[in-house]
Amino acid sequence: MGSWVQLITSVGVQQNHPGWTVAGQFQEKKRFTEEVIEYFQKKVSPVHLKILLTSDEAWKRFVRVAELPR
């Protein structure tokens, strides 16, 4: 799970950055989403992914451990 947390915290766009644009933010979010999908495809078994997607408790724990905003 540590790699997942690093992935989440390593990708981000700061709106106060001099080069920030709405289009740039969209591209950054798109790239982040693609990286997350690729990570899950390579690192998470289909069985575990199904549990994560179908169990409220598993999802809540995942959000808590990954320190995602609720």
Automatic annotation (TrEMBL):
It comes from Homo sapiens (Human). This is Apolipoprotein L4. It comes from the Eukaryota.
